[in-house]
């Protein structure tokens, strides 16, 4: 239980003059699914972007598997085994499903092979030659998740994977997250749908004003329900 894959200390970051993260610190255990909860604008997406190196930290440190990431760009971080599924999903509309899947290089062995991906996502196999533009929102989300799983990333950052999707698709994404967990992949999830997130998470960090304001293990959710509701209420 003491295998810390990610150690974030006093992280400060933002956009130009506007500081968003105001000293974020947390540790993440290998194989854990951790969900960031909080109202719109509290800094959840900014946390993921800073971890991935898409925006620079002003100060603080990020250690991944013991290595300091602070001076590394997002490509270098991806090569170490960090993958992101951004909110906009990043599907290339001019490429087919399979071309999108094959685009990022395999970084580590142990990622999902193409047959394993098609087994897990039968819709993607049916649509393997369809262009990205022809996919539904749910199919795009599946494709974005599948693409990062193929790379062998050991830490996956998932930004609001259920946003705007139908209940049946949301349930499907939950099943995929359980497969991810069984494979020992570590996940940081940003999610507004707490009822769904509860089923797939080990632990929650509550955020407000660019800071972590609370921590709740999944087994303590009922006891700390009020604290969680307050963090999510506008
Ligand atoms: N590209 C950007 N340039 C400038 N400011 C930004 C940018 N992206 C986000 N912000 C601002 O940073 C703050 C935190 O945004 P962030 O996206 O991290 O919040 P969030 O907690 O993920 O909420 P949401 O669910 O709305 O995405 C907000 O005030 C937002 O307006």
CATH topology: Rossmann fold
> Please, what is the CATH homologous superfamily?
P-loop containing nucleotide triphosphate hydrolases
Broad shape = globular
The tally of strands reads: 10
Count of helices?
A: 9
Beta fraction: 25-35%
How does CATH name the architecture?
A: 3-Layer(aba) Sandwich
Q: What's the main sheet like?
A: 6 strands, mixed
CATH class (first level) name: Alpha Beta
| Strand line-up across the major sheet | 6-7-8-3-9-10
Span between N and C termini?
35 Å
> What structural class results from the helix and strand content?
alpha/beta
Write out the distinct hetero groups bound to the structure. adenosine-5'-triphosphate
Q: Share of helix among residues?
A: 25-40%
As for the number of domains, it is 1
Rounded Rg: 17 Å
Q: What is the arithmetic mean of pLDDT?
A: 94
Outline the low-pLDDT stretches. none
Order of helices and strands: EEEHEEHEHHHHEHEHEEH
Question: How does this model look, in words?
Answer:
The structure is a single chain. The chain is an alpha/beta fold and 234 residues long. It has a single domain, classed as 3-Layer(aba) Sandwich (Rossmann fold). The protein is built from 9 helices and 10 strands. A 6-stranded mixed sheet has the order 6-7-8-3-9-10, sandwiched between helices. It has a 4-stranded antiparallel sheet with strand order 2-1-4-5, with helices on one face. A hairpin with a 2-residue loop joins β4 and β5. The chain is globular, with a radius of gyration of 17 Å. The termini are far apart. The site of adenosine-5'-triphosphate has 12 residues, from β2 and α1.
